[in-house]
Fold this sequence. Notes:
Layout: H1 8-21, E1 25-28, H2 33-46, E2 50-51, E3 59-61, E4 75-77, H3 82-85, H4 94-105, E5 113-121, E6 130-136, H5 139-148, E7 150-151, H6 153-159, E8 166-171, E9 194-198, E10 203-207, H7 212-215, H8 218-234, E11 237-239, E12 242-247, E13 253-259, H9 266-270, E14 280-285, E15 289-293, E16 299-302, E17 307-311, H10 321-326, E18 332-334, E19 337-339, E20 344-345, E21 357-358, E22 364-365, E23 379-383, E24 400-401, E25 404-408, E26 418-420, H11 424-432, E27 435-437, E28 449-451, H12 464-478, E29 484-488, H13 508-518, E30 525-527, E31 530-532, H14 547-553, H15 558-573, H16 581-594
Parallel strand pairs: 1-5, 3-18, 4-9, 6-8, 8-10, 13-25, 25-29
Antiparallel strand pairs: 2-3, 5-6, 5-7, 9-10, 11-15, 12-13, 12-14, 15-16, 16-24, 17-23, 18-23, 19-20, 19-21, 21-22, 26-29, 27-28, 30-31
Helix pairs in contact: 2-5, 11-12, 11-16, 15-16
Amino acid sequence: MKSPSRNTRLNQWIQECATLCLPDSVYWCDGSADEYNRLMQQMVASGAAIPIKQRPNSFLFRSDPSDVARVEDRTYISTASQIEAGPTNNWIDPAELKKTMTGFYKGCMRGRTMYVIPFSMGPVGSPLAKIGIEITDSPYVVCNMHVMTRVGTRVLDVLGPDGEFIPCLHSIGAPLEKGQKDVLWPCAPIEQKYISHFPEENLIWSYGSGYGGNALLGKKCLALRIASAAARREGWMAEHMLILRLTNPEGRSFHIAAAFPSACGKTNLAMINPTIPGWKAECIGDDISWMKIGPDGRLYAINPESGFFGVAPGTSYDSNPAAMDTLKQNVIFTNCALADSGDIWWEGFDGPPPGHAIDWKGKDWTPASKVDAAHPNARFTAPARQCPVISPDWEKLDGVPIDIFIFGGRRASVVPLVHEAYNWDHGVFMGSTAASETTAANIGAVGNLRRDPFAMKPFCGYNMGDYFQHWFDMGDKLAARAPRIFYVNWFRKSPEGKWLWPGYSENSRVLKWMCERVSGKAEGRQTPIGILPKDGELDLKGLSIPAQDLAELMKVDAAAWKAELPDIDQHFKQFGGRLPARLGAQLKALKERLG
Length: 595
């Protein structure tokens, strides 16, 4: 197929990849609905995609059981020196890594089509947007990229003959010999999976996995790992944050950017339906925020994605009605169960479980089965424009001004429901020490405490000590116009193990207090860890919470916090001389406040 691009560098790169990977044909994606429908029908014909009878233009895929999540131990940041990648990233020397992967790429697309996907992260033409070109041999990846990014010829028009783009090379790593029958989910064995980033070259190479962020290279690979390194060089921010607009009854809008590790309620918060009369919420993004300082000195954010790639289990009309309404049509489901009714299903879905279903491995399932019907990390890919609470400004080219940053995690104890940083440096300290109990979204033992600074540990494309310094540098530039910083924990439990806070839509009560702090309407009370709501400041009208539960939610136990200090100390030590002195000063100040 003749190249529709006039970009010499791009055309040369495509030719190099075709010569290396040896596909049967090369196809340039135009981003049209016809293209999406044609590829999906091909996958239905092969048995890889199963139409969902109850949801128009929606399809279910089942991945290979070895290919169900991000593979953090096979994800690399490859820089000239190891110190630039830092202690939180896996590092391999670029020359060595490229040699290994080039060996795998040789002939890897035999028997398959090489798809060229021109895509824009951010609205096409936005001053905050970046262009990527993904090469892949997976039609599943093409269809997901259609939903998650802006794909098509308009991107090539903006790129022009000499524009900059980020090359993203992906292969599932499963060449087909003549006459060989394909499998429903082709991928390479785990030891051959590589998700590799070369931030100094703005380059991404991925091999062996067809799943999620391992294969949809616009998502975590470009939008966070490569973008975070570019943002540091260029003086902006690429963060693992939802973006939410909250409007009070007087009509004042507040824009909130919030960072939580996976499966800590991020999508639910992004689509919150406030329970407080007169307050309105609109979603701008559920996962990633790119932010630049505007002409007025404030920080402006865009959502670089155009879709939601959400965790399905636990999503319901109880937990997230807006997400459920988003999933009525035009959705790609991966590793969910298929009920006999012809609809998808997962644990936590509304209503009683089906009497019989086909589970995510394609096996019979009933409520008596000892295994989950859906994989705990089962996903939906859905267009953001379908969300009933999407903001009319979600594709605003210049972005929206951020008033509030929120950090948080899943903690059964120690951390109160909400507290505010005393100042920017204190807020950076809170973000840098963020911790969460692990879930199924990341591989490893469930329930361990994992320090996940700024919810960026798996996604920061350079040394995290330098990343902390970049936050300080941005705060210095923003000065008095910097957003206020808060920390939340929706997951605190009583000593008996009972949830203390109802969560979901009721989290709007906590957001209201934050907005009142920003607008000078709430005084707060000082504690050793930050500013908490004063008695009566948290709007609890219509909510029945026993006084002892509220006291436990707001408790700042100095002894418990003192017990955290050695772990924070160890966490900081790993960054050695790259740890900003300002973080050491904040740790010292916390120790003094705790007495």
